[in-house]
Specification:
The protein is built from 32 helices and 37 strands. The chain is an alpha/beta fold. The strands form ten sheets. A seven-stranded mixed β-sheet has the order 14-13-27-26-25-15-16, with helices on both faces. Helix 9 crosses helix 28. The N terminus and C terminus are likely disordered.
Length: 1011
């Protein structure tokens, strides 16, 4: 019988024609076709590592590694020829010589252990090379995971993940040693290395060499036995193997593994920390969190940070609220839910009757779900009748949203993280991305290290991304608007703008040119402190990267260093203006990326938690919109803008706001001028706080309602990418607590509303029906790891990249906006001579209410401190651990100093996280605000420093990763393994390997692929 002619893009596998994708590796084609093939070191998110040799197949008559051989049309691949099978068996036998196989009593015997599964796949019965213990102890010095060298098969997955995916560049393998092992910073204990506990290494480990401590002695039926018995059990397994073979042993281990399915739950959720939107499965046994397992999350893949991988113990913290609390005098007493809800409803009803609906206000949590955001703003508007609704984006992201509304129409990232990876030039402005958005930062670091992406960082502080940047610019505080306009003006004046793009897609060029006429290089140099040469160089880089003849362009990332200024919205506008002038929208690898800080700070605004917007940014003042929602909710939607967060506190202090209902925000510490906030709370007639813990803010409350954190609820979050994802209930709500959406419904029902939601999916269906932005969002379309980036059409078509067909204005054209320079108002003076900067740390989220309840994290960064530059420290006589008092016109805090070159001159930096509320940095910040959004200008604060004379311990333990020195290299550097005198390519003599000598030795460049 004559075979059909071979089509382009097809290969022949074991005699069968198979589709193959250009550029993919043979192993990927085989995996897609479900052709069984061992592959211990290969991981599709890491790429070819080539250390294990277990994927050897015959390709066009030669034995080659399937993981490193690109497909070519017409290739003939044979997996079952005897030479290839014997080569794979030999390769795997070497692996077992490095690994003590005791699956039945191993905590990693969960059905997904690559080493275990490969034993079965190859059909190994006996080891020819006996296991050889290594002369190293188990390393238990990290609080979250341990490394067992005796179990390590030296596949290098962990090294590749650390070097080239996470790009922390801590792990290596000492291939030249007589006993190679994985090294942290060349041989340090893990706990004293540059390891940031991101968990990448543990996640990709194909066996139990790297394992979460939360798994140890917890996961298996027999793994919790005492150590002497455990060692005896291992010995029994190893002793019987030579006589009976591995098959009976593995059969027992598979029965044990299957038994775990009865008590180990694996539930998908979405991270509740920053706005990147990482998703993963959480493994639990009852309420014990065994581990977090990232796999195929659309934003993160196998990536996590220390918080997402290990920061979940707060869910089971002993101080969780489990009963409503009602204030009686200066004390709180426990109450039933019925009593608490009746009291809340009666106070709301009484306040409306006496003072009107605008005497009440509602603050909605950026950590709650989209559905919960929708319900609370509905409670305010439908049941109470007020637009006094806001969320914590007022403290960080509102200025960025305004800048994008003005210029391109949508208030969200113009693309996804994949677009940031594709960019030829990434400019980070006022963003400490590696610590505030660590998984997103890994994609920038990877593109920069491996793919030639340029990186420019503009910031006051030399954080990690600044040290990695091709160019690091340090302008004066609050002057980003000036250099942005100077660079844009230079590009326009020299005729290097993308004129074709401007002509077709942009309005307002003439007015915009006139608005920036004074932003000359000379003026920018005087105002910002950046030299004209630096500004010209930046302009050149932007223009070069904007070339349409190549893939990608310029992507600008920014965060609180921009938005928390007097001119935060003006500077955000200037960023978008520059991108428009250079044509950096409407195509992959370009655009504007305001990095959202909290997990759902994008979604909470999307779903209506704003004083002038209903869900989907539909204006309350639009009669058609008001009529639509009024008809659906059977109420009247008022057209007046309500109070935002900062105005609510002002109104409380004035006595016009009488009742505040706040959910899941530590407002007393995160709003600016904490003393002003506390005073406002004290003047309220009634204050309701809904939280999982008795926060500092809860101390001011009249009623405290115990809510459930993310692992105890269902719903959706929307990430900084505009990506909507489902989270599922990992464990039932702690007895006595309830998810926020259920509490809102109880309050609404007590006020007479006909709310009868039984599941968050019903809330999403209602919101989607009223909101064109999310019209096609359904729980079915978000099942599992599926996601949608808004806008979402009714048929479910989503929009990962915005503006491909035009901008979000009636004529489809963007608008250059004539923004105004709003310089800082609290520049240093003779009395307050230092500029105060503040921000996040990698280990903590914001003030630390969740992360300080994770012992491993709290031990790494136990408290706040103030970073002082070496030059300022020398001038003032300050050393590590010196106690100092920072004083501003608004308050004072006492902190220990950390002397570091990360800050410069008369800049000081204080992290937001503080173990004690009296040490929180916002005791120092004032009420100066962005001129458009009322976002507090946290970064516009000046202080003086009083040196108190006492010296304590350094505020960062000496084991902190910031003290260590990384060991960057190109990856696992497998060529060094091949160069070892004891390395012989498996199957040598059974088939020819291109690049191999006749005796089977592979030289330093022989990869088994098409070199």
């Amino acid at each position: 019988m004559t075979q059909a002619p071979l089509q382009e893009g097809m290969i022949i596998v074991n005699g069968v024609h198979m589709d193959a994708r250009p550029g993919e590796y043979v192993v990927d084609a085989l995996n897609r076709s479900r052709t069984e093939l061992p592959q211990v070191c290969y991981h599709h998110q890491l790429g070819p590592i080539q250390t294990c040799d277990t994927c050897i197949v015959e390709i066009d008559g030669k034995l080659e590694r399937a993981c490193a051989t690109p497909v070519r049309a017409g290739q003939v691949v044979r997996t079952e020829v005897s030479a290839a099978k014997r080569a794979r068996e030999e390769a795997y036998d070497r692996i077992l010589g490095n690994h003590q196989l005791y699956c039945t009593v191993c905590d990693n015997n969960n059905g997904n252990c690559t080493v275990h599964n490969t034993v079965s796949l190859i059909g190994v019965e006996h080891q020819n090379r006996p296991f050889q213990p290594k002369p190293y102890e188990i390393d238990n010095t990290n609080p979250f995971y341990r490394y067992d060298p005796d179990q390590c098969i030296l596949c290098g997955r962990c090294v590749e993940a650390c070097q080239n995916l996470q790009v922390n560049e801590t792990l290596t393998i000492n291939w030249e040693s007589a006993n190679p092992r994985v090294l942290w910073d060349g041989g340090k204990d893990i706990g004293e290395s540059s390891c940031v506990s991101c968990g990448h290494c543990v996640t990709v480990c194909p066996c139990n060499a790297l394992q979460e401590k939360s798994m140890l002695h917890e996961a298996g039926m027999f793994t919790g036995i005492p150590l002497p018995m455990f060692n005896s059990a291992v010995a029994v397994v190893k002793n019987v193997e030579p006589s009976i073979g591995y098959t009976p042993i593995l059969n027992i281990s598979e029965i044990e593994s299957a038994g775990r399915e009865g008590y180990i739950e694996k539930t998908k959720t979405v991270c509740t920390y920053c706005g990147v939107g990482c998703s993963f499965e959480v493994w639990t046994k009852d309420r014990h969190i065994l581990k977090v397992e990232p796999t195929e999350g659309p934003a993160n893949g196998v990536s996590t940070c220390v918080k997402g991988k290990f920061g979940w113990e707060y869910t089971n913290a002993p101080d969780r609220l489990t009963s409503p609390l009602i204030r009686e005098g200066d004390r709180f007493r426990e109450a039933t839910w019925d009593e608490a809800i009746r009291l809340v409803a009666s106070k709301m009803r009484e306040t409306v009757e006496r003072h009107g609906p605008d005497a009440l206000a509602f603050v909605i949590s950026s950590k709650g779900t989209n559905e919960e955001s929708y319900l609370k703003q509905k409670l305010a508007r439908q049941v109470i009748g007020t637009n006094n609704v806001d969320n914590c984006s007022r403290y960080c992201q509102s200025p960025a949203t305004v800048g994008l509304w003005r210029t391109v129409g949508y208030g969200g990232d113009s693309g996804t993280i994949k677009d940031i990876e594709l960019a030829r030039l990434v400019i980070g402005v006022g963003t400490n991305t590696a610590e505030s958005h660590p998984v997103l930062a890994t994609r920038v670091k990877r593109a920069h290290k491996l793919h030639g992406q340029e990186l420019v960082v503009v910031d006051l502080r030399e954080h990690e991304m600044a040290t990695r940047a091709d160019v690091f610019l340090r302008p004066r505080a609050g002057t980003d608007f000036v250099w942005l306009n100077a660079v844009t003006k230079l590009i326009l004046d020299e005729g290097r703008a993308d004129q074709a793009f401007l002509d077709e897609w942009v309005n307002g060029l003439t007015e915009f040119r006139d608005s920036i006429k004074d932003f000359t290089l000379e003026y920018a140099e005087r105002e910002t402190g950046l030299t004209q040469a630096q500004l010209r160089d930046l302009a050149d880089r932007v223009v070069r990267a904007s070339d349409h003849s190549r893939e990608g362009g310029v992507a600008v990332l920014w965060a609180m260093g921009v938005t928390q200024q007097m001119g935060g919205s003006e500077t955000s506008t200037a960023i978008s203006n520059m991108l428009l002038v250079t044509g950096n929208y409407m195509r992959p690898g370009t655009g504007s990326y305001p990095l959202r800080g909290h997990n759902n700070v994008q979604g909470v605004s999307d779903f209506g938690a704003m004083p002038d917007m209903l869900p989907g940014y539909q204006k309350v003042a639009d009669p058609e919109v008001a009529a639509k929602f009024g008809a659906a909710w059977k109420c009247t939607i008022r057209p007046e803008r309500g109070l935002d967060n900062t105005q609510m506190i002002d109104a409380a202090n004035k006595g016009t706001l009488k009742l505040l209902y706040l959910t899941g925000e530590e407002m007393s510490l995160t709003d600016a001028d904490s003393n002003h906030v506390a005073a406002g709370y004290g003047k309220l007639d009634f204050f309701i706080v809904q939280d999982a813990f008795f926060s500092n803010t809860a101390h001011y409350a009249d009623v405290v309602l115990p809510a459930s954190p993310a692992l105890e609820k269902e719903g959706t979050f929307t990430s900084t990418e505009r990506r909507i994802q489902r989270l599922y209930e990992v464990m039932a709500p702690l007895k006595g607590s309830l998810p926020d959406w259920r509490i809102y419904q109880l309050v609404a029902q007590a006020l007479g509303a006909d709310w009868n939601y039984t599941h968050p999916s019903q809330v999403m269906a209602e919101a989607a029906a009223l909101t064109p932005l999310i019209a096609g969002v359904t729980y079915e379309r978000l099942e599992g790891f599926k996601s949608l980036c808004w806008p979402v059409e009714a048929d479910g078509t989503d929009t990962p990249l915005l503006y491909t067909k035009g901008f979000h204005f009636p004529d489809g054209k963007a608008r250059l906006y004539a923004a105004k320079y709003a310089p800082r108002t609290q520049a240093p003076t003779s009395e307050y001579d230092l500029h105060l900067n503040s921000g996040r740390m990698l280990e903590h989220l914001h003030e630390g209410n969740m992360t300080f309840r994770v012992p491993g994290i709290a031990a790494r960064v136990p408290d706040t401190f103030v970073e002082v530059s070496p030059e300022l420290a020398a001038e003032r006589g300050v050393s590590d651990g010196s106690w100092v008092r920072l004083v501003s016109p608004h308050g004072a805090v006492k902190l220990r100093a950390l002397v570091t070159p990360r800050v410069f001159g008369n800049e000081v930096y204080v992290p937001m996280n503080a173990a004690r509320h009296e040490d929180a940095v916002n005791h120092l910040t004032g009420q100066n605000r962005d001129i458009n959004t009322n976002t507090p200008a946290y970064k516009d604060t000046s202080v003086r420093m009083e040196v108190l004379g006492d010296v304590g311990e350094t505020p960062l333990p000496r084991t902190d990763h910031r003290y260590a020195t990384r060991t960057p290299q190109t990856g696992v550097e497998v060529e060094r393994k091949w160069a070892r005198p004891d390395y012989v390519y498996p199957g040598a003599g059974l088939g020819l390997l291109e690049g191999a000598s006749l005796n089977g030795r592979v030289d330093a460049f022989g990869t088994g692929a098409d070199d």
